[in-house]
Structure formats: structure tokens, C-alpha cells
Amino acid sequence: MGNKGLIALVVIVIAVLSLPLLTSGNKSYTPEEVVHLFVEATDSGVPATVRPYITVKSWEASANEFQSEKDTTEITVYQGTINGIEAKVPANLKGDKGEKDIDFLLRLEEEKWLVYGMHLVVQNFEMTMDLENPDKIYEDLMEQAMEQVPEEVRSQMTPAMKEEMIKLMKKEVDKNKFNR
After folding, report:
1. Are residues 90 and 76 in contact, defined by beta-carbon separation less than 8 angstroms?
2. Residues facing residue 119 across a β-bridge
3. How many CB atoms lie within 10 A of CB 141?
4. Pairs from 99-107 (Cβ < 8 Å, separation ≥ 24)
5. In the chain, count of helices (H) and strands (E)?
6. Contact assessment for residue 105 and residue 115, using Cβ atoms and an 8 Å cutoff
7. Exposed/middle/buried for 39, CB within 10 Å: 0-12, 13-18, 19+?
8. How far is CA 36 from CA 24, 82, 177, in A?
9. Predicted structure pTM score
10. What is the rounded CA–CA span in Å between residue 62 and residue 66?
11. Alpha helices, DSSP H only, in the chain?
């Protein structure tokens, strides 16, 4: 065996021995495991810890939303359902600020389950927090609120009035950020 053969053998041995180290960071988690890791990461208050568990689009649109106060969260994750490349995982979160039932919405991207939204009910309003399109929640809430308004009042509302109401909702949410 010449020098070239010896070098090739060494390269192959190194490649084979390092393969587990190179692929260990790419472990595929189940949707339930991702939800648990996501909640733990958000509870850290450090936005960068959330990145491995959310879609790229969610990170680009909502990265600054993951700066929350630490909450002693107890999480119970239930068996989710998978429908093609999407999954829905129910969970119950308990912490210093109360208890919430949340359905986490995940999508399979590059062979990894990643969170892209959350569905929950707050004060009789059902809402989906789309992390990829965070402003959509205000439109959804406005639509539900308008269903509660009598038709004679709704018919008098201009688009500018509705837009002003959405601005007020955003201002109120910013004042009282949703924290677990």
C-alpha cells in the first residue's frame, strides 16, 4: 500500500469514526419532544434558545417575541396528531401566571418537526398565534369581536374605525405581553 492508499484509508477511518459526532446535532425529535423543548427554551427568556424549535419563517417574523420573564412552568404534553407534514400537540402549562391549555402547531421542515403556531382560548376568545404571521392574530380577534357587535352597529363601522380598533388591541397586547 502506497502513501495515497494509506492517506485514503486514514481519511475513511476518520470519516466513519466522526459520523456520529457530525450527525448527533441533527437528532429528529417527535412533535411532543419539540413542544417540551420549545416551552423550556421560551421559559429561559433568551430568544436564541428558541431558534432550533421553530420554523425559519417564525424566527424571522417573531424572534423578538421570545423575550419573556422566567416562569416556573410545569408542562404536560399529550399525544399529538400528525396529518401529513403538520402536527398538533395539546399541552397544559402551569406557572406563576396561571394555567393554560394550548395546542401547539408544528410543521415538518428538512426532516425536523418545528413549531409555527399555537392555538388557545383566552377569555372566551379562540385564537391562533401564527408565529410566521404575528399580526394576523389581531385580524382574527377583530373578526370574533365583531361577531359580538349588533348588526346595526357593525354596518356603521368604517374600515378606518376597524383599523383603529386593531391598533388599540396591539397597543394593549404590547402593554400586557402574553406570558405563560
Report:
1. no
2. 103, 128
3. 18
4. 100/180, 104/31, 104/35, 104/38, 104/80, 106/31, 106/34, 106/35, 106/80, 107/55
5. 6, 6
6. yes
7. buried
8. 19, 17, 22
9. 0.69
10. 7
11. 3-23, 31-43, 56-62, 136-148, 151-154, 159-175
Other C-beta atoms closer than 10 Å to the C-beta of 42 total 24
Count of all residues that appear for the chain in the document:
180
Cell of 177: 405581553
List 117's β-bridge partners, or say none.
105, 130
pLDDT of residue 68: 61
Nearest-angstrom CA–CA distance, 1 and 120? 67
HSE (side-chain half, CA atoms, 13 Å) at 145: 13
Of 36, 60, 40, give the one whose Cα is nearest residue 49: 40
Grid cell locating 7:
492517506
Tell me which residue has cell 400586557. 176
Q: Phi, psi (5° rounding) for residue 101?
A: -100, 125
State pLDDT tens for residues 107-158: 999 999 999 999 988 777 788 888 888 877 777 777 777 777 788 877 888 8
